[in-house]
Write a structure and sequence with these properties.
276 residues; alpha+beta; 5 strands
């Protein structure tokens, strides 16, 4: 079962912010709408009735007394913005708390201000027939008497409205990080060393010895050292994806309907009740 909750705002930005907060609050809320003077059915003058519900014709589950309903209408007529949302019974308190924490108007206080300046919330009569103190859309059966003395009992029938919303079904988080692994390798390196020795020699001097000439011998020793370089290659990929499917869920609930019992007194003729 769902109920329609309402809140009045002076600025559209405040109403839209409240709508966003309501959608983010993870409550069972659907058909969230913001109504203003441009909304279908809104009356620039006069008040709504059961015969002419005005903008309330599109708000199916708003069970409001006349005074509250007409106060909201007057707020919209004065440039305000009315937020309505269909909320599951178990989430009504949470949804109302979200709207109360927004910059919504205190309807009772605002109504008193308008009344003190001459505003009259009472419904307008039309040839003696109106909705009086009844709540438009209320699920109570209230007998009414018209100008000719006929009495009627409204037959109220509920309809089941099934919606859907997104919920968190869990997920996966993939995180990459860097590790270091020790690596041991061996490489053979060549080294040169310079050796200077004196050797005893006993032989005759020859021209090849080029005696008594100054000379210098330069010898350079070389060696090898290890050079380390690194290359990086992609060796594997981790791919994260999700797939969407659908399933059919059976919804079992109850709806209410007004039934009428006719007790016929003896000697009194009663026409049978015609049902449509």
């Amino acid at each position: 079962m769902t109920r329609t909750i309402t809140a009045l705002f002076d600025q559209r930005a405040d109403a839209e912010a409240a709508q966003n907060r309501l959608e983010a609050a993870h409550v069972d809320a659907s058909h969230i709408s913001i109504h203003d003077k441009a909304s279908p059915g809104f009356h620039a003058a006069g008040k709504s009735t059961t015969q002419d519900p005005g903008m309330w014709g599109s708000i199916k589950n708003a069970f409001l007394p006349d005074e509250d309903r007409h106060t909201y209408e007057e707020g919209v007529r004065r440039g305000g913005f009315l937020l309505t949302a269909d909320v599951g019974e178990e989430h009504v308190d949470a949804a109302v708390k979200v709207l109360e924490e927004s910059d919504s108007v205190d309807v009772d206080d605002r109504s008193q201000q308008w009344k003190s300046s001459g505003w009259d919330h009472a419904p307008e009569a039309a040839a003696g027939v109106g909705i009086g103190a009844e709540a438009y859309g209320s699920d109570r059966a209230v007998a009414r008497t018209d100008a000719e003395g006929e009495q009627s009992i409204p037959i109220v029938e509920e309809q089941l409205i099934v919606g859907k919303r997104e919920v968190d079904r869990g997920g996966a988080r993939v995180r990459s990080y860097v590790t270091e692994t020790p690596v041991h390798e061996q490489v053979r390196l060549r080294d040169e060393k310079i050796s200077v020795q004196r050797r005893a020699v006993d032989r005759p001097l020859t021209d090849a010895d080029d005696a008594f000439r100054e000379r210098t011998i330069d010898v350079t020793a070389t060696g090898e050292e290890a050079v380390v370089g690194k290359t990086a290659r992609v060796v594997e990929e981790v791919v994260v994806s999700k797939t969407a499917g659908s399933h059919v869920e059976d919804i079992n609930d109850t709806v209410r309907r007004t039934e009428v019992e006719i007790d016929e007194d003896k000697g009194t003729s009663v026409d049978p009740l015609n049902r449509r």
